[in-house]
Specification:
Length: about 325
């Protein structure tokens, strides 16, 4: 979609976002175009994954309201959350991937600057192990944080696990959701996935590094998996008694993540390890670890001080670092 078309489509979506019926005439007047042009624009919304319902002789509506993020509120509450580090918050309507968008940026000369990028929609959201991250418009939190650090790469061991701890804790304390963790960093509720983290790093092995922390957290999307051995998905709305707004969820998770990055930079994974172990959904259970070439089966004995999984195979303890491996629970 060309830029102008995209902006025009977005203007229309914003008018329909309340989920109420709007007549073609009302939309045409507000947009300053003909009713035929409105009809044409409506037809293009399918390309953005937005379905519009035509209500006979009354007008158009969305099947459910779309709630856009309140960037001013996020900026106001997050800019000074970390002592000594200025935090900027940007929200874009659409991007391929918030992680990629931040990785494409030049290193900032302001070493302590932290940039948060959220998108209303991602067209190529990236998950772990080369998977795509489903990112429909206005439904969930798609967030990346760019953090510049002097730490060397090996000091980042366990970072994504530490962030999982923060997300699960926030879901429980703020939204009353009993969230748990699946190694290395899937956030689960009643065995369904609610959030995932993708940490990507750019720089020299010995530092300095640019760390991009990507979080996808479902606020309204839930669906059954179509992948063999995949997860089913749940959302904050499905699991919480509180009718949380996307901005409310984003604000809480972002302040937690920013403070955790600050703490991790000073103390490393050891400050989070016991909390990770307490949140482990499969503690003590038989699990299977699969990588491209290997598969190991054993009892899950938690994580070591680097965030590596400790697997008890016939009484012998092995450690497995996260990399490109996945964990499955054995029946
Ligand atoms: C996982 O596979 O569990 C990790 C998913 C991470 C998804 C988020 S959404 C925001 C950020 N941008 C991306 O392209 N991916 C991460």
């Amino acid at each position: 979609m060309r830029d102008n078309d995209f902006e025009a489509s977005f203007e229309l979506i914003s008018m329909l976002a309340d989920g109420k019926i709007h007549s073609g005439r009302e939309l045409a007047v507000a947009l300053g175009v003909s009713r035929a042009a409105v009809w044409k624009r409506i037809g293009k919304l399918a390309g953005l994954g937005v379905d519009v319902v035509k209500v006979r002789s009354l007008g158009y509506k969305l099947p459910k309201p779309i709630e856009f993020l309140d960037v001013a509120l996020l900026q106001k509450n997050l800019s000074t959350v970390i002592p000594g580090r200025a935090v900027s918050v940007e929200v874009v309507k659409q991007v391929d991937s918030t992680n990629l968008a931040l990785l494409r940026r030049e290193r900032s000369t302001e070493e302590s600057a932290v940039t948060c990028l959220l998108a209303e929609q991602q067209t190529s959201g990236r998950g772990r192990r080369g998977k795509t991250w489903h990112s429909p418009l206005g439904e969930n939190v798609y967030l990346s944080i760019l953090w510049q650090t002097q730490l060397s790469l090996n000091k980042l061991n366990g970072l994504s696990l530490a962030l999982g701890v923060v997300i699960a804790t926030m879901l429980s304390e703020v939204f009353g959701i009993n969230a748990q963790l699946k190694w290395p960093n899937d956030v689960l509720v009643k065995n369904k996935k609610i959030a995932g983290i993708l940490v990507e790093v750019d720089g020299a092995l010995e530092g300095p590094l640019r760390v991009v922390v990507g979080l996808g957290l479902n606020v309204t999307t839930e669906h059954e998996t179509t992948e063999p051995n995949g997860h089913n998905w749940t959302s904050v709305r499905a699991q919480s008694e509180r009718n949380a707004s996307r901005t409310d969820v984003a604000l809480n998770v972002m302040s937690g993540l920013l403070l955790a990055l600050h703490e991790f930079e000073r103390l490393g994974f050891r400050a989070f390890r016991q909390r990770w172990i307490a949140l482990d959904a499969y503690a003590g259970m038989p699990v299977q670890i699969t990588s491209h070439e290997h598969s190991h089966t054993g009892l899950n004995r938690g994580v070591d001080e680097n965030g590596a999984l400790v697997l008890d195979v016939d009484g012998v303890l092995h450690t497995i670092s996260s990399g490109e491996v996945s964990l499955r629970v054995r029946a």
